[in-house]
Amino acid sequence: MTGDLLYESGVALAARIRRKEVSPVELTRACLARIERHDQTLRAFITVSAEAALAAAGEAERAVMAGQAKPLLGVPFAVKDQFDTAGLRTTMGSRLFADHVPTGDATVVARLKAAGAVLLGKLNLTEFALGGTLDFPFGQPRNPWDRERDPGGSSSGSGIAAAAALAAVTLGEDTGGSVRSPASYCGVVGLRPTARRVSRHGCFPLAWSMDTPGPITRTVEDTALLLSLIAGRDDRDALTATRPVDDYLAALRDGARGLRLGLVNELTHGADTDLEVRDAVVAAARVLEGLGATVEEVSLPLLPLAGAVFMALADSAGAGIHLTWLRERPGAYDAGTRRRLMTAALIPAALQQQAERARALIRDQVLGALRRVDLLVSPTSPRPAPPIAQGQAPVTSKDEAARRFFARRSYTTPYSLTGNPAISLPCGFSRAGLPIGLQLAGRPFGEAVVLRAAHAYEQATPWHEKRPPLL
């Protein structure tokens, strides 16, 4: 099978399989061969379950021949190694769990399997999905557009596998931007759903009030399909919403006409935003305007503080989860992870409460703006993917620490703090040939509106057709 076929969307591949134009077994073999060819360099995968994948593909092929129909029957997928998989090790990207084999599937994994999808394996991530890993226990993940560049954390393998067509579709998990950042850096689509929209059962936690699984795919249509399959009430996660799941695929037909968009001034024109990124996002807003939306600038002055507020809350929550292991097995942690968690364990309660108050104020600003407009528009990241070495260099000053740890997170974490849905999709490339991400954020449970605008923009532009320079 050619690379052209492997780059087709999951929706298109499922249709080909239903028409018996493509064999699930041959498609799975082609994905496994592509993984073998490219993943020694890219390191998207921690574990490849070739034998189990081929067995599942065989079952899917028999189901196709018997006339069965499922949304993803025979389509290969892979998931971040933060989600439990029955009988297949789940490491959380850490030496502490190098040999951990769950007995059951995470709800999101079980739902994709029930839809007929074929699990290829588990994808690389920053240790415990925290970010800032210095020495990846299972290999340094690399951006397929430039192997010396960061693929984005923490769902790095999910972004790489989608961009490099190592799997048809993937799943990541987003606490502070861990679906949207790799989507932005790797030039694919990543959606953070509304808080509680998707079950977190079987997903290792970082910050319970902000963690959410989300799709990373090559097209908005695939993201809409995956969300429709994984969203909805789950009795094994008591916090999942009871609200009915919208028809996200049908919403794509509505386009951008009539939508009111707010271009976020502090993120689009902020001092931390590269001019290339600013220009690409402003141009994307103009495309949406040409598709029938109206665009106005909005000011949300607290958003530049979101990165610091997020880290005060999320890192403290993570420290609480890891405290016993940090005491008993500190040497098993990566040095970057250990330093970040131990630092967070020292944050005073008064500072955490101040961060909670700031979170409430940020939420008020975001929700207030979304009473005036339907979507908020901004860059996903202030700049394209930085060199890997830049993130591993020692921190030499307080100002540098603020830039490295707070500034870039202020682009994605506002919607983590508020619980709003937000998507990243490609909106151009830098002069160095690196993808630039456009972020659209909507009202709570407004994924249908987010997806329709994203799909309209995607179909009007060529960016989703670009492929990384893999031989």
Which structural traits does this protein have?
single chain; Amidase signature (AS) enzymes; 471 residues; alpha/beta; eleven-stranded mixed sheet
Q: What is the radius of gyration? A: 21 Å
Q: CATH first level: which class?
A: Alpha Beta
Helical amount among residues, as a percent range? 40-55%
Largest sheet: 11 strands, mixed
Terminal Cα span: 15 Å
What is the CATH superfamily? Amidase signature (AS) domain
Total beta strand runs: 11
Query: What's the CATH architecture name?
Result: Alpha-Beta Complex
Number of domains: 1
Structural class: alpha/beta
What share of the residues does DSSP label as strand, in percent?
5-15%
Name the poorly predicted regions: none
Can you describe this structure?
The protein has helices at 3-6, 10-18, 24-42, 50-65, 107-114, 156-163, 180-186, 220-230, 248-251, 265-268, 275-290, 306-328, 335-344, 349-372, 388-392, 398-407, 413-418, 447-460, and strands at 45-48, 76-80, 118-123, 169-174, 189-192, 212-217, 260-264, 294-298, 375-379, 422-429, 435-441. By secondary structure, it is α/β, with parallel strands linked by helices. It has an 11-stranded mixed beta sheet, sandwiched between helices. Helix 3 packs antiparallel against helix 4, helix 6 packs parallel to helix 7 and helix 12 crosses helix 14 (349-372). It is globular, with a radius of gyration of 21 Å. The model has no long low-confidence stretch (mean pLDDT 97).
